[in-house]
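> forwarded from #structure-qc
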């Protein structure tokens, strides 16, 4: 469960990116985070994986208050969640398999466990047959699915995605969405920031709309946006 209570974030340049927001997300939900550029979406997402720390208020994820944990504990927290970015962030000199395995190897898992977990994860994203290929031998959508496999290999309860389809065409975006939806069906909470009006309209899900650092709308059944609206 995620409980964001009365959170403000003021950056060093005095920019108030979030202004007293409160949001609760239950286990197993799929939530879109939308809003104009500069509305505070990325800041909200960054608070959830403790890339940034709230200036005021509390950010509780799975009973842990992220505003209170010291920096040296952050890596331990991050092992319990998965994060996916717009630009994939794969290591170019490692194969798809190695990119996913790397997330486990740094935690000292034994070889057989690594093999099983990596293959399970690549199978879920539909890329077992391409596990020996390097990122530059994969399409954008395939690279993002490898990044998702890496994010879920530790079986996180929460998957955070910041514009995961931002670099992808509509057809490829759909395949990435199907993977995220399957992960959600298996019980993982998914929080996804997006500008993609079509995705938000096509798969109606709870949608938080940010504007000027506040949540101006929380549409539990999903929001509907017109083409001329800018997300
Ligand atoms: P969005 O993801 O909706 O585009 P952001 O959360 O990135 O919005 O930004 C919200 C506001 O905070 C913007 O005005 C942005 O310029 C500012 N901001 C974001 N990151 C920083 C930072 N590291 N330092 C200073 N200001 C920032």
């Amino acid at each position: 469960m995620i409980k964001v209570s009365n959170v403000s974030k003021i950056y060093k340049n005095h920019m108030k990116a979030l202004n007293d927001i409160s949001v609760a997300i239950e286990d197993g939900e799929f939530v879109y985070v939308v809003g104009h550029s500069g509305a505070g979406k990325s800041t909200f997402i960054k608070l959830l994986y403790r890339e940034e720390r709230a200036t005021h208020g509390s950010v509780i994820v799975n009973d842990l208050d992220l505003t209170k944990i010291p920096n040296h504990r952050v890596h331990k927290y991050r092992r319990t969640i998965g994060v996916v970015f717009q630009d994939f962030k794969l290591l170019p000199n490692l194969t798809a398999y190695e990119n996913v395995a790397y997330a486990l190897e740094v935690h000292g898992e034994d070889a057989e466990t690594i093999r099983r977990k990596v293959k399970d994860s690549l199978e879920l994203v539909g890329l077992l047959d391409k596990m020996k290929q390097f990122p530059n031998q994969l399409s954008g959508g395939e690279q993002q699915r490898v990044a998702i496999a890496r994010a879920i290999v530790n079986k996180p309860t929460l998957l955070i995605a910041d514009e995961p389809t931002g670099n992808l065409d509509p057809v490829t975006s759909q395949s990435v969405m199907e993977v995220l939806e399957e992960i959600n069906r298996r019980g993982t909470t998914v929080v996804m920031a997006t500008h993609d009006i079509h995705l938000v309209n096509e798969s109606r899900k709870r949608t938080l709309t940010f504007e000027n650092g506040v949540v101006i709308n929380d549409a539990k059944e999903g929001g509907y946006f017109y083409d001329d609206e800018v997300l």
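QC bot note: Residues 11, 13, 15, 17, 35, 37-43 surround adenosine-5'-diphosphate (CB under 6 Å). Helices lie at 41-48, 74-78, 96-105, 111-124, 140-152, 170-185, 197-202.
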